[in-house]
Design brief:
This protein has three helices and no strands. It is mainly α. The chain has one domain. The longest helix is centred in the first third of the chain and has 28 residues. It is globular and about 45 Å long.
């Protein structure tokens, strides 16, 4: 069985999918933590939306918008887009890990 390494485009698609997943997971964990009184929303722009359906809608639409913009940048400047996407995945990965660690307090 031969293992085929993903191409540059496929790697970018995987990274973008991971980023979208992390952003949405951040929203789900935030809703859960705030609902149980274990955290507070640090973003002053999102604070009024937390607990409302608009919060998750904004998270999903924002995640997709960021992915489309990064994909567009990737078509012209693949290295820049890959570095920016890796940084965003690492950042949101840290946020998700932090939020998940707070869930252990339950």
């Amino acid at each position: 069985m031969k293992i085929v390494s993903p191409t540059g485009k496929n790697k970018m698609k995987i990274l973008l999918g991971t980023l979208i997943g992390f952003i949405i997971l951040d929203g789900v964990l935030t809703e859960f933590l705030l609902g149980n009184g274990l955290a507070r929303e640090a973003n002053p722009f999102l604070k009024p939306l937390v607990g409302d359906i608009g919060f998750m809608v904004l998270k999903v639409i924002g995640a997709l918008l960021v992915a489309f913009i990064l994909w567009d940048v990737y078509r012209r400047f693949p290295r820049v887009a890959a570095i920016a996407t890796w940084a965003a995945v690492a950042g949101y990965g840290g946020i998700v890990l932090w939020n998940a660690s707070l869930c252990l307090l339950l």
